[in-house]
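QUALITY CONTROL LOG
STEP: pairwise intake check
CHECKER ROLE: data steward
CRITERIA: each record must contain a sequence immediately followed by its C-alpha cells, with no blank fields

ENTRY 1 OF 2
RESULT FIELD BELOW
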Amino acid sequence: MGVESQWGGCSGRWIGVVVGVSLLVILSTATGADTEAPPQAPPLPDLSGQRIVLERPLPQRSELRYALYRLELTHPADPAPDRAAERAGLERFASIPRAGVQRPVFADERTILLVVDAGRPVNPAADMPRQRHRKPGPRVPAEDEALARSAAEALADQPDATTSSERAIVLSQTVARWWADESEEGHPALAAITPWPRPLGESAPAAWSLAAALRSQGIPARVVAGLVYAYEPAEADKNEQEHEQEQADAEPAFTFRMWVQAWVGGDEQPREGQPPPIGARWVDLDATDPADHTGRIALASGVLENQDLHPDAAALADLLDRLRIEVISPRPFPGDR
C-alpha cells in the first residue's frame, strides 16, 4: 500500500508536469504566431539605372524643339510568358500619355510614333485636372505647414508673378534652392518628404516636393515617370587621345527620371507684340533639371505617389526592359520642317 501510494502520488505529479509543459508549449506557439513579423515587401527594381541606348545622338537638349520617335515594345525574354502579365505590359505601353508637348500620331499593339513638339502643346480637353491632382498624397505632403509656408513666402517675394505659369516657375526655382541647401539639417520645407528608396534615384524626392509645393498654392500637379535624354559628348578642347576615348565611352541614351506636370495657363493677358497666350494645359517642370527642352518622353503620369511604390515601379521596370526607341526626325527649330 505504501509503495502503491508513493508511486500513485508520483504519477499525479508527473501528469501535472506533462500537462503544464504542454500548455506552455501551446501558449508559446500561439504567442509566437501573434508576434510573427509581417512578410517583407519585395525589393524595388532599380529604375535609376535604366538606360535605353540610341543609335544616333539628338541635337543638344537646349536646342531640341521637335522630335519624332518610334517606340517599340519587344516580346518578353521568356519564351512562354505569363499571358496576364503580357497583356498588362501591352496595356501599359498603349497608355503612354498624350499630354504636355508629346502626342502619339500612330499606334498599334507594339509600335507608337510619338511626336514631341515644344511649339504645339497638346489640347488637354480629355485630360483635365482631377481632385487627386489638387490634394495632398502619401508621397506629396502638400498639407505640411513648413512646406506650404515656405512656398507661400517664395511667391510673396515675387509679386510680379501673377499668372499660374509664372507662379509655377517661381515654385520650381524655389524647390531647386531647397534641394541645393547644403546645411546639415537641410531646408525645413523638405522635412516632410518621405525618405526615398534609392532605386528611384534623386529625381523622386525632388518631384514629390515640387508637386507638394504646387498643390499647396492651388496649382494642380502630378508626378510623371519617364525618360530624359542624357548624352554628354566629349569635350573638343581635350587632346586627341582623351577626346577619342571619351567619345567611345559616351553613348546617346535616354535615362529614367521623374518630374512634374503642372496645370497652368488660361489666365494670361495678351501682350503687345507677343503671340496670343495658350490656354490651360499641362506643362513639364523639373526642379533639379530645369532646362526647357523636348528631350523627354513621359511614360506614365500620376504614378509613384502612393505609399506602396512597388506596383508602379514593377510595371515601369517591365516597360523599360522591353522598350526600344528610334529617333526618326529630330529638329532644332519648329520652323525647319
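ENTRY 2 OF 2
RESULT FIELD BELOW
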Amino acid sequence: MHILEWHDFLAEKPQICALTVGVFDGVHRGHQLLLESVIRRGQLPTVLTFNTNPKKIFRSFSGDIYSVKRKLEIFETMGIQRTVLIDFSQTFRAMDGISFMHVLMDKGMQYLAIGNDFRCGYQQNIDAQTIQTVCEPCGCSVEIIQPLLSKGEIIHSSRIRNAILRSDFIEAEQLLGRPFILDLELFKEEKDGSFTLKKSGFLIPPDGAYMLPVYYGTQLKYAQLTIKENKIWIHSLNTNNCV
C-alpha cells in the first residue's frame, strides 16, 4: 500500500481513484462497509485519514482505539492501495467543504463513499447530501452508505470506546468485527517493570486484572495483565496454557 502525506498528495499527478474519507478509529464494521465499497470499484482504492484524531483538538477525548500504524495495517489487509495522511492544521481545517471536494476531484476522485452522517469543511459546513449535489454534476459518483446497526443502535467509534472503558470486550469485539487489541508498541517499559504510554491520547481499559493472550511479534503467549493508574504490568507468561 502506498502511504503519503496530504502535501505530497497535492503535488502528485492526478490519478483516477475511488475514495473514502474519515478518522476510521477502530476501523469497525461500519467503517468496513465504506472501505469495501471503495475496494469493489477497483479504481485505485484510496483512504484519506488523519495523523491526529481531530476530536482531540476540539473537546475532551477518552483516547484513540487504534494507532495510525494499526489502522494502516487493516487498510492494507482489506485491499486499500493508497492512504493519504492529513495533518489537521489551521490551513486544512479552514478549507470549506466544497473547495475540499473540488480538490479531491481535481486529483482524480471519480467515486466517493461516505456515511449518511458525514460532514466536512470549515465548521463542518457541508453534509453528505450537499456533497452529492456538488460532485455528481462533475462526473464523480457519490455513494451514501447507510449506518450499520448492532442491537438496534448505530455502530460508532464512541460506542466502542464506552464498551472498552467498562471492560465489555465482548461488545467491543462485536462492534469492531475483531477482538480489541491493546498495542504494546505504544508503551515503553519503566524501571519497575511496568509499561506506560509513550505519548498520551490512546485508550486504556479501566484499572483491573485481565487474563488474555499477548502477542510478541508473531509469538503468542498468555498473561495476566494488570492496569493501575494508566500503568500496565504483565505477569505469569506461559506459552502453553492460558493462565
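INTAKE CHECK: passed for both entries
DESCRIPTIVE NOTE, ENTRY 2: Confidence is low (pLDDT under 50) at residues 239-243.
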